[in-house]
Amino acid sequence: MSPREIRIYGDPVLGTRAEEVTTFDASLRTLAGDMLETMDNAGGVGLAANQVGIVKRIFVYDCSHTQSGLRGAIVNPVWTPVGTQEQTGPEGCLSIPGISAETTRYNQVFVSGQDIEGRPMSMVASGLMARCIQHETDHLDGVLFLQRLEAAVRKDALRAIRESAWFNAS
């Protein structure tokens, strides 16, 4: 396994909808392993394939330090809310370093998809895992969490990005 470069805000691949995965082979397993290592090295809890420049519908997650204790990958994820209860909390993104903002998401979701072997999988998730599923699936749809923010909060976040050293270095 090898860590990959995380694409940063402004890279067009982050606004690209990823394509369905149809081939479940060694290269997909390698991609998932590389993504987990990349996420771990960056200190994240989730990472979508387009964040490492690959436009395939797969994301990895690690909520093993939480009550859910889950770690792995979901291929071709589709989620729906379970109920109407929402959670609002700080959300950040490995592709937008150092920026976080209060973001509202559904508190509980049902997700289905496949594992890296192509086997069907599904789960009901709440809390951080539900937030992760929604955030990473947004990435696969070419949507950044900034687009989920209220207008005033988004304006402040975009100002912070423009003033950041990493944004001005590119």
Automatic annotation (TrEMBL):
<keyword id="KW-0648">Protein biosynthesis</keyword>
<comment type="function">
    <text>Removes the formyl group from the N-terminal Met of newly synthesized proteins. Requires at least a dipeptide for an efficient rate of reaction. N-terminal L-methionine is a prerequisite for activity but the enzyme has broad specificity at other positions.</text>
</comment>
<dbReference type="GO" id="GO:0042586">
    <property type="term" value="F:peptide deformylase activity"/>
</dbReference>
<dbReference type="InterPro" id="IPR036821">
    <property type="entry name" value="Peptide_deformylase_sf"/>
</dbReference>
<feature type="binding site">
    <location>
        <position position="93"/>
    </location>
    <ligand>
        <name>Fe cation</name>
    </ligand>
</feature>
<feature type="binding site">
    <location>
        <position position="139"/>
    </location>
    <ligand>
        <name>Fe cation</name>
    </ligand>
</feature>
<protein>
    <recommendedName>
        <fullName>Peptide deformylase</fullName>
        <ecNumber>3.5.1.88</ecNumber>
    </recommendedName>
</protein>
<comment type="similarity">
    <text>Belongs to the polypeptide deformylase family.</text>
</comment>
<feature type="active site">
    <location>
        <position position="136"/>
    </location>
</feature>
<keyword id="KW-0479">Metal-binding</keyword>
<dbReference type="Pfam" id="PF01327">
    <property type="entry name" value="Pep_deformylase"/>
</dbReference>
<keyword id="KW-0408">Iron</keyword>
<dbReference type="InterPro" id="IPR023635">
    <property type="entry name" value="Peptide_deformylase"/>
</dbReference>
<keyword id="KW-0378">Hydrolase</keyword>
<feature type="binding site">
    <location>
        <position position="135"/>
    </location>
    <ligand>
        <name>Fe cation</name>
    </ligand>
</feature>
